[in-house]
Design goal:
The protein has 283 residues and is α/β, with parallel strands linked by helices. It is 39% helix and 14% strand. It has twelve helices and nine strands. Strand 4 and strand 5 form a beta hairpin.
């Protein structure tokens, strides 16, 4: 995580240096013009508002089981998860949080999408959600987004994140993928990816960056990347994820980063926890 923080500080210094070159008075400044030799840097508010918005119908939300956007008791599990994640992040000074699972089909991407909706209802908190499951990206399809570029293009410098990302509400920005990467492991573990995420973090200045990552036991993609995040949420599936799979995932994660919690997905009953039956249980 120290390397990612160093990269963020470097990006911040570069932005500050450009801002110093802006003229502070004169007629050209008054009408919004800058000399051609100075790059115009929009304000963070302009950056956020300049993103294309996510457009989803209510029917699509229901079909995709994205319940946190519907309010009422169905959104309670995700609201609780949002609150606990935010509380722990603030308490520990965490900003970059990975979302992983022992194996595929544990519901981590569904949970990530619902967390995005939950955070969009809390406008004072800004959040980025990045789909970095570069082998089997599902976030765009799950949310019904047709995109021409993906996070692979952003990480490789082919397109700016500001041109690729979609905005949900006024405070959540999402980076999608439009297909599997040819060399996902090498890309995810590269210095270039680390620097690009640092640049995006500095540019958008979010309170949280949630990163949807590949399952732990499917590939080695995560092993060079997880040391760069502050903490992870481990998603497991009730009656599907075995004790052995969970123990192995926890042991692997413990060697790389901090496990902030385990989220039990597909749980039909929680024994009345929080006063509601829930599909999710946070430990």
């Amino acid at each position: 995580m120290d390397r990612l923080q160093t990269a963020i500080e470097k990006a911040r210094e570069q932005r500050a240096e450009v801002l110093k070159q802006r003229p502070t008075n004169g007629p050209l400044t008054d009408v919004g013009f800058l000399p051609e030799t100075v790059e115009h840097l929009p304000s963070r508010e302009e950056i956020w508002q300049g993103l294309q918005s996510v457009d989803m119908t209510a029917r699509a939300l229901r079909d995709l089981r994205l319940m946190s956007n519907q309010g009422g008791s169905q959104s309670v599990p995700y609201d609780l998860l949002r609150t606990r994640v935010l509380h722990q992040a603030r308490q520990n000074g965490w900003r970059h949080i990975g979302i992983v699972s022992p194996t595929a089909a544990c519901g981590k991407t569904t949970a990530a999408a619902n967390l995005a909706f939950a955070f969009s209802h809390q406008p004072e908190v800004r959040m980025l959600l990045l789909d970095l499951d570069l082998r089997r990206p599902r976030l765009a399809g799950m949310m019904g987004q047709k995109i021409e570029t993906g996070m692979e293009d952003v990480l490789l410098g082919r397109v700016p994140f500001t041109e690729h990302a979609r905005r949900m509400g006024n405070n959540v920005a999402i980076g999608f993928n439009n297909g599997a990467s040819e060399r996902p492991s090498e890309l995810l573990q590269s210095i270039q990816t680390e620097e690009r995420i640092a640049e995006i973090t500095e540019q958008f200045d979010p309170d949280l960056v949630l990163i949807d990552l590949p399952p732990m036991m499917s590939t080695d993609d995560n092993f060079g990347f997880l040391s760069k995040v502050d903490a992870v949420l481990l998603m497991v599936a009730a009656e599907e994820s075995s004790n052995e799979q969970i123990e192995v995932a926890l042991r692997q994660l413990g060697e790389l980063t901090t496990v902030m919690g385990i989220v039990l997905n597909k749980c039909r009953h929680t024994g009345g926890a929080y006063g509601y039956d829930s599909k999710y249980y946070y430990s």
